[in-house]
Amino acid sequence: MNKDMEETVLKVAEYSNAEKQRGAKVVTAYYIIGLLALAINAAMQVTDHGDSFWIGFVKGLALGIAFGAMLLGLLFVTGRMAKVMAFKRRLLGRQEIVEE
């Protein structure tokens, strides 16, 4: 019985570590996207392209992407994303997906 318990604990620990690594990769990707969008916005602010609709659109889009990426990263880090996904599934009437 002790050996079975030890194997179970090891499997749970491996699963937990895999989940943490996957979450860290997602958060890292969101923050990189946000930083790239901020860099694009900063470059657009420094250079003089004039004031056309499309220049303003690109500046606003870059800021929006940066804000969204940082917000999603924060949701993942704090663990609120799981609650958001569960709420979304309830709204859409979908079943929980169980991974095996």
Q: How much of the sequence is in beta strands?
A: under 5%
- The mean pLDDT is 83
Indicate the low-confidence ranges by residue numbers.
none
Q: In terms of structural class, how would the helical and strand content be classed?
A: mainly alpha
Counting structural domains, the number is 1
**For the terminal residues, how far apart are their CA atoms?**
23 Å
Spatial extent as radius of gyration: 21 Å
List SSEs in N-to-C order: HHH
Summarize the amount of helix as a percent range: over 70%
Give the strand tally.
0
Number of helices: 3
Main sheet attributes: strand count, strand direction, barrel closure: none
Broad shape = elongated
Keywords:
100 residues, mainly alpha
Q: Can you describe this structure?
A:
- The chain has 100 residues and is mainly α.
- It has one domain (2-92).
- 84% of the residues lie in helices and 0% in strands.
- It has three helices and no strands.
- Helix 1 packs antiparallel against helix 2 (53-78).
- The longest helix has 45 residues, at 2-46.
- It is elongated, with a radius of gyration of 21 Å.
- The two termini are 23 Å apart.
